[in-house]
């Protein structure tokens, strides 16, 4: 039996509460013969309290050795005063940087049972299932020069620089096409090649990789402003959207909000494929934070965290049937009206975090 090594980093606030529900799911799959091995470590404020750092070198080494990291959430008012270098978020940034997690995948899935929670019309979003692939370690957030200077005339001048190299575009492009092959075989590449040199290069590289390696996948180029418009007008036309760091930041937030609550949104961050083993570093986390306002009260929606584990099943372990079954279990639980407060409809009785985890396990059992 193949073993899959998972490192669990629950973190702070509702992180441990939603991670506990994932552990139930992991346990269920393990009982069914899937070889999961789990370890748990500290990150964020809880690591700071124990070790005065937001992640220890030992935890980093465990993350490096794992097949996938499941990350809860970090931060909260308790750590507002800690030194900047060891603030809770630094632990997550260190993981992203040292594991080389350059590809951020954010699915936007609209479960039929929640279609009315969207700000768009039911028919526009019902059944929506798209993924935004955002380049995460390059582009205008990191390019040099980056400065804010005061000129001799007293004016100030600020500069940010968008930089992309061929290699950076190639690797994110391959992630997007590989993903599309496991889905509906369509990639939409988004940039502004009409006004930006990095956009011109982006389009060239994506077209070249497509022709050479993925000609069986459909490719379209969509200018980023039009892409934003199309996401709101007719999001179901898309399958996988690949884009740079800045446009991805914006487009992924648009796509996310088509589907409702922050408590529903999973994500994956992937690194480069090891040429020897074919494996890639990966970290899976909900989009939401540590929600200090509801922490410790059993109110958190665990579906974003559970869905993040579903992405690990799909993208790190190739367990596609298991991932489909988990998605189906989540959809059925939502359809049955078992929902935490953030997504409970009017007149519906909200249940607690643990009830949702239990219901999903029960549904997994029923589906098998
Ligand atoms: P947040 O995502 O923690 O919460 C925003 C709002 O959404 C809150 O009202 C919260 O109760 C609600 N919410 C979030 N997740 C939910 C869930 N699973 N179920 C039900 N309701 C949910 O963002 P906020 O309040 O801006 O930040 C709180 C703390 O989290 C801060 O310390 C922030 O730095 C940190 N944070 C950490 C992130 C991470 O670990 N990746 C990401 C974002 C924020
Ligand atoms: Mg953002």
TrEMBL record:
Binds 1 Mg(2+) or Mn(2+) ion per subunit. One of its GO terms (biological process) is L-leucine biosynthetic process. Keywords: Amino-acid biosynthesis, Branched-chain amino acid biosynthesis, Cytoplasm, Leucine biosynthesis, Magnesium, Manganese, Metal-binding, NAD, Oxidoreductase. It catalyses: (2R,3S)-3-isopropylmalate + NAD(+) = 4-methyl-2-oxopentanoate + CO2 + NADH. GO terms for molecular function: 3-isopropylmalate dehydrogenase activity; magnesium ion binding; NAD binding. GO terms for cellular component: cytosol. It is found in: Cytoplasm. Substrate binds at residues 96, 106, 134, 225. Pathway: Amino-acid biosynthesis; L-leucine biosynthesis; L-leucine from 3-methyl-2-oxobutanoate: step 3/4. SMART domains: Iso_dh. The record marks 141, 192 as: Important for catalysis. Mg(2+) binds at residues 225, 249, 253. Its cofactor is Mg(2+); Mn(2+). Its main location: cytoplasm. Its EC number is 1.1.1.85. The keyword RNA-binding does not apply. Residues 5-360 form the Isopropylmalate dehydrogenase-like domain. NAD(+) binds at residues 76-89, 289-301. Catalyzes the oxidation of 3-carboxy-2-hydroxy-4-methylpentanoate (3-isopropylmalate) to 3-carboxy-4-methyl-2-oxopentanoate. The product decarboxylates to 4-methyl-2 oxopentanoate. HAMAP family: LeuB_type1. Homodimer. Belongs to the isocitrate and isopropylmalate dehydrogenases family. LeuB type 1 subfamily. This is 3-isopropylmalate dehydrogenase. The lineage of its organism: Bacteria, Pseudomonadati, Pseudomonadota, Alphaproteobacteria, Hyphomicrobiales.
């Amino acid at each position: 039996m193949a073993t899959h090594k998972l490192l669990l980093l629950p973190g702070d606030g509702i992180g441990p509460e939603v991670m506990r529900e994932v552990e139930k799911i992991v346990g269920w799959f393990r009982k069914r013969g899937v070889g999961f091995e789990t370890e748990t470590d500290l990150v964020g404020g809880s690591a700071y309290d124990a070790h005065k750092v937001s992640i220890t070198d030992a935890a980093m080494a465990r993350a490096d050795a794992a097949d996938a990291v499941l990350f809860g959430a970090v931060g909260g008012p308790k750590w507002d005063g800690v030194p900047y270098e060891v603030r809770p978020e630094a632990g997550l940034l260190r993981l992203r940087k040292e594991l080389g997690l350059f590809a951020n995948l954010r699915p936007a899935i609209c479960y039929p049972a929640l279609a009315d929670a969207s700000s768009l019309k039911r028919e526009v979003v019902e059944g929506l299932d798209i993924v935004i692939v955002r380049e995460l370690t390059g582009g205008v957030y990191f390019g040099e020069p980056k400065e804010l200077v005061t000129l001799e005339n007293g004016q100030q001048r600020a500069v940010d620089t968008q930089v992309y190299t061929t290699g950076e575009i190639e690797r994110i492009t391959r992630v997007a096409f590989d993903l599309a092959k496991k889905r509906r075989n369509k990639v939409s590449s988004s940039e502004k090649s009409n006004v930006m040199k990095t956009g011109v290069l982006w389009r060239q590289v994506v077209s070249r990789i497509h022709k050479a390696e993925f000609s069986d996948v459909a490719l379209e180029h969509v200018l980023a402003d039009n892409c934003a418009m199309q996401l709101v007008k007719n999001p179901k036309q898309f399958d996988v959207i690949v884009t740079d760091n800045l446009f991805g930041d914006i487009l992924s937030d648009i796509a996310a909000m088509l589907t409702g609550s922050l408590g529903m949104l999973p994500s994956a961050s992937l690194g480069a494929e090891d040429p020897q083993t074919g494996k890639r570093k990966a970290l899976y986390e909900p989009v939401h934070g540590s929600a200090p306002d509801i922490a410790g009260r059993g109110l958190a929606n665990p579906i974003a965290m559970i869905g993040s584990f579903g992405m690990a099943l799909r993208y790190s372990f190739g367990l596609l049937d298991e991932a489909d079954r988990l998605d189906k279990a989540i959809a059925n639980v939502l359809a049955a009206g078992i929902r935490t407060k953030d997504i409970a409809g009017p007149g519906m009785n909200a249940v607690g975090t643990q009830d949702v985890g239990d219901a999903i396990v029960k549904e997994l059992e029923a589906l098998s």
